[in-house]
Amino acid sequence: MHLIFNKLYSFSQHISNPARTVLKSRQCNVLVPLQHYCSKPSSSSSSSGTSNAGADGEKKPPTLQDLKKKSFKWNMPITWRSLLITAAFGAVALAVMFNVKKKKEILREKENQRALGKAKIGGKFDLIDQNGNALHSDTLLGQWLIVYFGFTHCPDICPDELEKLAQVVDLIDGDKSLENIQPVFITVDPLRDTVAAVKAYVAEFHPKFIGLTGSVERIAEACKAYRVYFSAGPKDEDNDYIVDHTIIMYLVNPEGNFVDYYGQTKTAKEITNSIMISMAKYNLAK
């Protein structure tokens, strides 16, 4: 009877005080009083730095006031020295980039010039000079050439063009900062223009002239390489004739490649200025 009385007393206490109702945890078979979940955090726990913790033990997100309290510092302070070092490295990088770009452009221009010379105008020749010596075009490499095709019996055009060419040579030679230029005369009338005739003819215009003649076949090859047109006209009663031909001066660089050409309308000064520009471009591309 005493045991039954105690059980009834305990049951009546649970009913009268709901806060002591127990819950069974899913994680373990431990009876936890409901009061544990409903109780407020004690003053001692809030003062220990757990104000951001919720009633269930999870942390609350930081407030704006909490973020303002935090101070952020740079790992490396910014100084004038660090700025100058950074600027120096940037300047060096830009200089290297522009230098590489410039070299690529120069090489591209040089290749374009080579392709132009090989594809269109210019080439090798093997002829005889005004002294009777065999002369191959390769022996003239290493210097600038200005080449003119004509014939010694030409009444007016060839003399005028050769005089203009001589003026160009004098203007180039007068500027010591410029490279040497070699004038070359190639006949388009090999049947009449012998070695002696060519020698006497070129001597009338400039002492630097190289005069070239040769067989009909070799002259035709040289004219074909430079795209020079020539055609002998009908003979008169004195067995004389005029040769119709291209009236152009050809500029050739030290590598033997065609660079530019100058027609009859160009003045000596204009030709000289063009040659100076071509020389500067060539030297820049080396």
TrEMBL record:
Residues that span the membrane, as ranges: 78-100
Gene Ontology CC terms: mitochondrial inner membrane
GO terms, biological process: intracellular copper ion homeostasis; mitochondrial respiratory chain complex IV assembly
InterPro entries cross-referenced by the UniProt entry: SCO1/SenC, Synth_of_cyt-c-oxidase_Sco1/2, Thioredoxin-like_sf
Keyword S-adenosyl-L-methionine carried by entry: no
Subcellular location per the Swiss-Prot or TrEMBL entry: Mitochondrion inner membrane
Chief subcellular location: mitochondrion
Cited Pfam families: SCO1-SenC
Listed GO MF terms: copper chaperone activity; copper ion binding
Annotated Basic and acidic residues bias: 56-66
Tagged with keyword NAD: no
Amino-acid positions noted as binding Cu cation in the UniProt annotation, renumbered to this chain: 154, 158, 245
Keywords: Chaperone, Copper, Disulfide bond, Membrane, Metal-binding, Mitochondrion, Mitochondrion inner membrane, Transmembrane, Transmembrane helix
Disulfide bonds: 154-158
Chain positions covered by the region annotation Disordered: 38-66
Family: Belongs to the SCO1/2 family.
Protein purpose: Copper metallochaperone essential for the synthesis and maturation of cytochrome c oxidase subunit II (MT-CO2/COX2) by facilitating the incorporation of copper into the Cu(A) site of MT-CO2/COX2.
Subunit structure: Homodimer.
Protein name: Protein SCO1 homolog
Organism: Hirondellea gigas
